[in-house]
Write a structure and sequence with these properties.
Blueprint: H1 2-18, H2 23-26, E1 33-42, E2 46-47, E3 54-55, H3 62-69, E4 81-86, E5 90-95, E6 103-110, E7 117-123, E8 126-137, E9 141-151, H4 153-156, E10 171-181
Antiparallel strand pairs: 1-4, 1-10, 2-3, 4-5, 5-6, 6-7, 7-8, 8-9, 9-10
Amino acid sequence: MKIKLLSYLLIFSFVFVSCDEESDDVNKEPLLGIYTISKSVLTSDATSQNGLVSIPSGTDITDAIVTAFLSEIQCTSSANKAIEVAENNKIYFVCRLEDKAPQDQGSWAINEARTEFTMTLLIQGTPVPLKLSNLVESSTSIAGNVASIPVPPLLLSSINSQFSGVTDQAVLISIDIELERLN
C-alpha cells in the first residue's frame, strides 16, 4: 500500500513539475522587446559620388536615422514611435502609449554565435536589410555596426544642407547604432 501511495505521489510530482509556467521563460529570446534608436554615429565619411559633399566620420546622425526609419508609422507623438522585436522573428513599428495596432514592418534573425543581428525592414515597400555586426547585447540595449547602408542624399541633408543638391541615387553610410530597450 505504501509503495502504491509513493508511486502516485511520484507521478503527481512529475505532472506538476512539467506544468510549471516559468519553464516557458527559460527558452525565451532575450532580444524580444520594444526599442528606440538611441544612437547612430558615422564610422566612416559619408561622401557623394563626386566627392564634393561629405559628412565626417564620428558625426552623430541619430535624428536623421530615426526620422527616416520610423517615418513608416504615424503616431500622435513622434516620441512614441518604436521598434518591436517580436516572437516568430517579426519586426513591428509601434506607437507606444497609444491605442494603435502594431504595424508589420519586416523580420529579424540572429546568427548562432550571437554576433550578428539582422533586421530586414520594409522601408517605402522595399525590404532593407540592416545587419548589426559585432553585436553587443545587454538587458537595456542592442548595439552593433552596420556597414554600407545605401541612403538617399536627402536623408543626410538635415546634417549637411549641401546634400539636398546631390543627385546621386544613394550615398553609402556605415554607422554604429544602438537600440535602447523601452520595456
